[in-house]
Amino acid sequence: MTKQYLIADGFWLVLAVAVCVESWSLGIGEFTSPGPGFLPFWAGVLLGLLSLISLVQTATEKAKEEPSVWAGVKILKLGLVILTLLLYVALLNTLGFFLCTFLLLLFLFRAVEPYRWHVVLLASILSLAAVYVFFVLLLDVRLPSGILVF
To answer: I need a labelling partner for 119 at 20 to 30 A (CA). Which of 4, 62, 66, 150 fits?
Structure first.
């Protein structure tokens, strides 16, 4: 596990350096008159510092046996969820957002974590209502309507 953390920390450190170099070429300006690279540069510096801290912590800690990330994962359910999400994306424009999402939520609430049907229906309807209020009413986003009119 330590090796994976070291690789991840190294990746973030390299990314931070790349962000800083590119931001510097845009011109960072000054605190009183920031240039277009000001925010990305300081974000890159912050990312680099955090990566270095994590890298040092990971390198200095003693290795211990940890269970695998995949321990306890039910492969059949994982495959079903991936297949269902692919099917969701394929049918989204045809069936529309609300019908397709409702069916997806029904499946996820029932098949992945087997709740009772009334809980599944209530959770699916409430989730769709929350999405409708947030995206359609508040943000005025147009969602794919599909075979449904709305």
So the answer is: 150
